[in-house]
Design a protein that fits this description.
Layout: E1 5-14, E2 17-27, E3 32-36, H1 43-50, E4 58-63, H2 68-76, E5 79-82, H3 94-104, H4 110-119, H5 133-145, E6 151-154, H6 163-178, E7 182-187, H7 190-194, E8 199-204, E9 207-213, H8 214-221, E10 223-229, H9 236-239, E11 244-249, E12 256-261, H10 266-272, E13 277-284, H11 287-296, H12 315-319
Parallel strand pairs: 3-7, 3-8, 5-6, 6-7
Antiparallel strand pairs: 1-2, 1-4, 8-9, 10-12, 10-13, 11-12
The chain binds adenosine-5'-diphosphate.
């Protein structure tokens, strides 16, 4: 099946700065695909190349099997795009602007504008120039979703939205996916995309370093665990347990154990339960911690230098 998005060997230089070093991506029809990486990793650059707003220094892009530069309005109509940086005409209200966009699309999307604005609590009568960053983001989201495109390309869609509206956005993305649309969304937070995304690609310093199922990624990120015991324990009891890494005992008290837990929690729980536990704290680790794992790996080719790994295939690479 032709992928909806295919990027091969994308290189992008800004003057003497190389922002992308050969990015490969394959996104299949109906996938909700997360594109994760810290600020400056190259997410927006990749997305602008997909949207033909920038031209690659090297490499190729195909959207629905067509080079975006050759696709013309017929291709654009099938895509809803939320740019990372929004700019709007100053003199229109949000409603006028969205009506204008619907008119450009032959009326498509007019019907859904009101419903989307309501769900995102966007006041359509306000002038665009008077809108806060969050409200501008809502206008950006409405214009991306309103014509029910087959492909949504969303650059940091939750940026500037308060938590309630972030949830509403996740509902919208999930609905679009359930309705058969392909959704490609970027973020710098794993937490933000894990509820909706199936697969994610991780980009770091212009390279895709991993592609995996989001659940596998979450399991791999693991949890930072802190245990406090009523009396002294020995580190040796915990350090070698399956799933336990970086175990350390606080030397100042001898009763506080910290470790990284990946996978099955039972061996650690069983060992801990041999003592009286007075405190248990487990926190999901974030994307940044996964990056640290990548940095901790010995030097060598990254997974991006090899054929795209299947789900879970890169696991050993990342945790080694
Ligand atoms: P992200 O979206 O992941 O935050 P970007 O794609 O915006 O990352 O940026 C990738 C790299 O390219 C960064 O080092 C950034 O400073 C650089 N960059 C982005 N846009 C430009 C530009 N117009 N001119 C020069 N450098 C740029």
């Amino acid at each position: 099946m032709t992928p909806v998005i295919r990027a091969q060997g994308l290189v992008k230089d800004y003057g003497s700065t190389r922002a992308l070093h050969g990015v490969d991506l394959d996104v299949q029809a109906g996938e909700v695909f997360g594109f994760l990486g810290p600020n400056g990793a190259g997410k927006s650059t990749t997305i602008r190349l997909l949207m033909d707003l920038l031209r690659p220094t090297a490499g190729t892009v195909e959207i629905f099997g067509t080079a975006p530069a050759a696709g013309g309005p017929g291709l654009r109509e099938r895509i809803g795009y939320l740019p990372g940086e929004l700019s709007f005409p100053a003199r229109m209200s949000a409603g006028e602007y969205l009506a204008y966009l619907a008119a450009l699309r032959g009326g498509r999307g007019r019907r859904r504008t009101g419903e989307l604005a309501e769900r995102l609590s966007l006041d359509l009568s306000r002038p665009l120039r008077a809108l806060s960053k969050g409200n501008k983001q809502k206008v950006g989201l409405v214009q991306a979703f309103m014509h029910e495109p087959e492909l949504l390309v969303l650059d940091e869609p939750t940026s500037g939205l308060d938590p309630l509206l972030q949830r509403e956005f996740l509902h919208l993305a999930r609905e679009a996916g359930a309705g058969g649309a392909t959704v490609f969304l970027s973020s710098h937070m794993l937490q933000e995309v894990e509820e909706v995304a199936g697969r994610v690609a991780i980009i770091r310093e212009g390279r895709v370093v991993d592609v995996d199922d989001v659940r596998a990624l979450r399991a791999r990120a693991g949890q930072q665990v802190l245990l406090r015991f009523a009396g002294p324990v020995s580190l040796a009891e915990f350090a070698e347990l399956p799933g336990v890494e970086d175990a350390a005992l606080d030397p100042s008290d001898g009763v506080t154990l910290s470790c990284l837990l990946r996978g099955d929690p039972m061996p650690l729980l069983t060992a801990a339960a041999r003592h009286r536990v007075v405190r248990w704290q487990a926190e999901d680790r974030e994307l940044e911690d996964l990056f640290l794992d990548f940095y901790r790996r010995p030097a060598g080719p990254t997974t991006a230098d090899r054929p795209a790994p299947g789900p879970g295939a890169a696991h050993q690479e990342a945790v080694r």
